[in-house]
Each structure stands twice: as structure tokens, then as C-alpha cells.
Amino acid sequence: MKRILREYSPLVALLGLYFFGISKLMHKKSYDPLGVYKFPLFLGIIASVLTIALIVQACRHRKEKPEESVNWSTFFRMLGVVALSAAYLLLLRQIGYVLLTPIYIAGMLLVLGKRDWKRILLLSVIATIVLYVPFRYLFKVLFPKGVLTFLG
Amino acid sequence: MSFDILLQSLEVLFKPLPLLYIFGGTVLGVVFGALPGVNASMAIILCITFTYSMDPLIAIAFLCTVYCASITGGGITAILFRIPGTPASAATVLDGYPIAERGEPGKALGISLFSSAVGGIISTICMYCLTVPLMKVALKFGSAEQFAMAFFGLSIMAFMENGSEGKIKTFISGFIGLWIATIGIDGLTSVSRFTLGTKFLINGVGTIPVMVGIFAVSQVIKEMTKKTDRSQYSDKKLTKLIGFREMWAMKWTLLRSSIIGTLVGIVPGAGASIASFLGYTAEMKISKNKEQFGHGAPEGVCASETANNAATGGAMVPLLSLGIPGGAAAAMIMTALSIHGVTMGPLLIQKSPEYVSTVFLSMTIANIAMVFVAIFVAKGFARILRMPYSILGVVIFLLSAIGSYASTKNLNEIYIMVVFGIFGYFFNKYKFNHAALVLGLVLGETCEKNLTRALKLAKNNVGAIVTRPITAAFLLLILAMFLWPAVKKLIHHLRDRKAA
């Protein structure tokens, strides 16, 4: 039962959010024949029926799998990757792509177990240049400049 | 088209400089297409500046080359890194990546390149010989027909997984994709839907960040959470391309998908993404190895890549004959030529038929050149897989982020990509279907928009929509596809009883 709850509760929550959205739409006037909510409502009803069928089926054939043991080193590594990526995305606008990307790459390589400093430094600088130059100068993509305002 | 006009175009193109432009366009197109976030229309925009000093005939040849090659290039990152640079390559990921994962990326890339070339050449021949009759077919495609075509594409969901639990999960995934497609301002009524009152979602959720998140970022998370064995990438098979015999075995797949791609390409608004999914659906239904689809079936890569490249030739039909661009990339070509004072449309075919023959020749040359150019590009890219995943994963993540950001230059797209990456990871973990979600997302808007339009035109009379010949044919085909397994079972049962 635990497995069923763990697997399907996010789906049910998603459906709840979906119908909340539809209820907001139902009051909006529209002149098209389907209305802005009928198509999503139709999708929602079918998805709900399917979710119920899935839960019923899972309850009928329930086989509790043995709980997987948590590998703590993997867990902490993942936590590091997620924290670094979140920090990178949040600071990108303020610090800028050119400055933050090599730091992010170096940090990620460290978290993922690389210890050769020279290699880390070289890789982070080269990867940043390889990713930045074509997109910036060939495709004219304006990256967040951050503190390096002179980059233009 | 007369032979003299073809000779006239040959005379224009078979000179060192135009051939160099075509070759250069092929290289640029393949490289641009291989970069995530750079789609065919963006590649054309970037190349328009090169055409200012060109003769209009050479300019159209150059831009058509870039167009064809960029669609092909999109398959490279889809196969190697699970990053579909454009929606047209989303179907390629489904079987291309599993083949690469088996340690045979060269084989998958080879199939993709040869199929693209064959699809491109067949559609170009169709375009040249049948522009006028094909246009008559395209004009019969109204909203109802486009809805039926998109609905046919969605029907693939029914065959993606076996077993009732798998099927239910696939359908739920598809419906989630269809729902995501409804987020943002509705194109027909301008009412914002599911935006949670924020400006963040007002433009909807972009197809590229969702696809990149679902396919690439979720894979990066998965690979980083487990110790992966990458010994399969150290073998010689890594850059080994597909052999002629294996390719010849897929001749009917090539032909079928080329026809599907060309026909879908001529329908304005349909485009390469619908073509690739339709080609894939048809092949999956017909193939004897149905169970291999989604797990590394060579026919899957062949069908989607042939169809999406065949759509490029098809897209030129309405552009040349009616002046209607079939998609964003064709619209860019039209704009570029208007700079040279060339106006596309029926008058162009009557007064300057050499444009049709030049497009035909340049696309044919480009499709042949593309194989050689792309082999070098693909072999180089395939070697990248030898890198340890700790480095490759970080680069893929950053490349995915740039790809999502580059299409709109909005940081929100990266956040959407990350959210869908995490969502995709759990989605995969609990055995929901990525491909069905992307299918719903890609076809959702076409489906809803055209259904609404068709209903409005038919004054809410559903009967009037479903009885239109092409719509009815599509719907009957879907019905037949669903009923065939049951009918087959019944026939076998009756035969067994008779024999007993």
C-alpha cells in the first residue's frame, strides 16, 4: 500500500491542481464552440478515470517490493549536484554566465569525485569557452552578463 | 517542368562558387541543427546575411540546403545525448538513444543520416514532378483534416506499451502532455489557462525546454545517481556506421516514410514534427518487430528521420506554387527571397519555373553532400561518448540549458527545463511514458486548435466534420488500427475451432 501511495499520490495531486485550474476557467466567457475549458475538461475526465483504473489495478495486484536500501554516498552526491545546480540557476542573472559557469563546472566535477585540480581547472575553462563563443558570437545569444557588464 | 529549364538550373548551379555555397550550407546546416535550441528557422535566419550578395537563384539553393541539413543535424544530439534539438527529432530519440546506449551510436547515426538523405531526395523528386497535383491535395486539408491527422499521430500511444498497466500509464502520460500544451494564452480566444495567475506561464510552456528537460536532464540525473558502466563506448563499434545490407532491409520503411513525410510536409502548418511522429506510428503498426520499438529498433530511427526530412521537400510545394509557407523555416526562406525582389506564388511557377528546378537540384545535391558531411560530424560527435559521464553529464546539462535559453532568450525557459527534468526523472522511475508525454505536447495544440476551428466552421455539427472524406478516412484508419488486434484474434480463434 505504501508503494501505491508513494507512486500515485503525486498524480492525484496533479489532477487536483488541474481541476482547480479548470474551475477557474469555467467562469470565463468565450465565443468559440468548445470554450476555453471544455477540451481540458475532457482530458481531465479521461485522465481521472485512467488514474482510478491504475490505482484499482495496483491495489488488486499489490506486491510490496522490499524497500531499497539508501546509498548514502550517492544521496549526498546527488544533494551536492542539486544544490550546486540550484545555486547556479539562481545566481546566473546576478553574477553572469562567463564568471559563474567555470565555477559551476569545477564545483560539479569536485562533487562528482574528480580530484585532479589542473584537469578540473582546464576542463571548466575550456568547456565554458566552447559553450559560450559559438552561441554568443555566431548565434547572437545574449547571455546574462552579471557583474561583467563590459561583455556587451 | 521541361527538361530545358532543368538544364538552365544545372548551368547556374554547376559552377565552383554555387557548389561551394551548397557545400558550405550543408556544413553550416548540419552543425547548427546539431546544436540544441538552434532549429531550422533559426539556422536560416543566421544564414540570410550570407545571401545578400548572392544571385536570387543561388540564394534559394543555399537556403534550401541549410534547411535540409539542419533538420538532419537535429538527429545527431537526439541520438547521442537524448537532446532533441527540435520537436522534429523527438521521435528519433525513442529508438536512436537506446541504440547508442547499446554502444552502437555510429549505427544509429548512420541510419539517421542515410534515411534523411533518402527521404529528402524522394520528397524533392515528388516536389519537382508533382508540385501542381500535390498542391490540389494540400488545398483539401482544412481544419477538420488537420485535426484528424494530428489525432492519428496521437493514436500511436495505444501501441507504445504492452500490458494493461503500461497502456494506462502511457495514456495518462499522453494526457499530461496534452494538458501541458494547453497552458498559457489560448491562441483562438486570448484567454489565459492554467497560468496560476503568474506572468511566468503566460506564454505557455515551450516545447523545447520541456523536451530537453524530460529527455536530456532526466537522463543526466539518472546517470549521475547510479554508477554507470560505460565500457560499451570504448569498443570499435562506436563509430561503425550501418552496412548497406542492413539499410537495404529497410527499403520499404524508407519508401513509406518518405511518402508520409512528403504528404504531411505539403500541408501548411503541419511540418516535420508531425511527419516524424506519423512516420513512426505507421512503421510501428506495420513492422513485424513491434516490441522492439522504443527499445532501439533501427526501423524507428529510419522512419522518423526519413519522414522529417521528406517533409522539407513537401514544405516547398505550397511555398513555390501558392506562396504559402508550410512552416516557420519556409517562411524565413520566403522572407529572404523577398529581399531579393522574388515573390513566391503561382506567378513564379509560370514566369520563372527555373526556381522550382533550382530548388529541386540544390536539395538533391544537398541531400547527397549531407551524407558525407554528416558522417564526419557524426563520427566526431560519437567519440564524445567516450568521456566519463561526470564530465559529459555536466556538459549535457549546460548545453541543454543554453538550448532552452537560446530559443527565447528567457531564463524562465531554463527553470522550466529543470522542473521538467526532475519531473521526468520520477516519471521514468515510476514507469510512465516520456514519449507519450512529448507526443501529447507536440500534437496537442494542433489537435485542439483545429478541432475548435472545424467545429466553428461546421456550426458545431460534429457529423459534418467526421463525414468529410479525408477526415473520415483518417478516423476509419484509427478505428481499424484499434480493432485489428481483436479481429485478428477472432479470426485465429475461429480457424482453430474449425480445425478442431
Could you give the order of strands across the largest sheet of chain B? Answer: 1-2
- Main structural class of chain A: mainly alpha
Output the helix-strand order of chain A.
Answer: HHHHH
Beta fraction of chain B: under 5%
Low-confidence stretches of chain B: none
- The gross shape of chain A turns out to be flat
Total E-strand runs of chain A? 0
Number of helical segments of chain B? 21
Total number of helical segments of chain A?
A: 5
Mean pLDDT metric of chain B: 82
Task: Give the oligomer, counting copies of the same chain as homo and different chains as hetero.
Answer: heterodimer
Q: Give the overall form of chain B.
A: globular
Q: For the report, how would you describe the main beta sheet of chain A? A: none
Task: Give a short account of the largest sheet of chain B.
Answer: 2 strands, antiparallel
* Low-confidence runs of chain A: none
Distance between the termini of chain B: 62 Å
Characteristic terms for this protein:
heterodimer, A: 152 residues, mainly alpha, 73% helix, B: 500 residues, two-stranded antiparallel ribbon, 21 helices, 75% helix, 1% strand
Question: What's the topology here?
Answer:
The complex is a heterodimer of chains A (152) and B (500).
Chain A: H1 2-25, H2 35-60, H3 72-95, H4 97-111, H5 117-138
Helix pairs in contact in A: 1-2, 3-4, 4-5
Chain B: H1 3-13, H2 16-34, H3 40-51, H4 56-81, H5 90-101, H6 105-139, H7 143-154, H8 164-182, E1 184-185, E2 192-193, H9 207-225, H10 244-248, H11 251-266, H12 271-286, H13 298-322, H14 328-339, H15 346-351, H16 354-384, H17 389-408, H18 411-429, H19 434-457, H20 462-466, H21 469-499
Antiparallel strand pairs in B: 1-2
Helix pairs in contact in B: 1-16, 2-3, 2-4, 2-16, 3-4, 3-14, 4-5, 4-6, 4-13, 4-14, 4-16, 5-6, 5-13, 6-11, 6-13, 6-16, 7-12, 7-19, 7-21, 8-19, 9-17, 9-18, 9-19, 11-12, 11-13, 12-13, 17-18
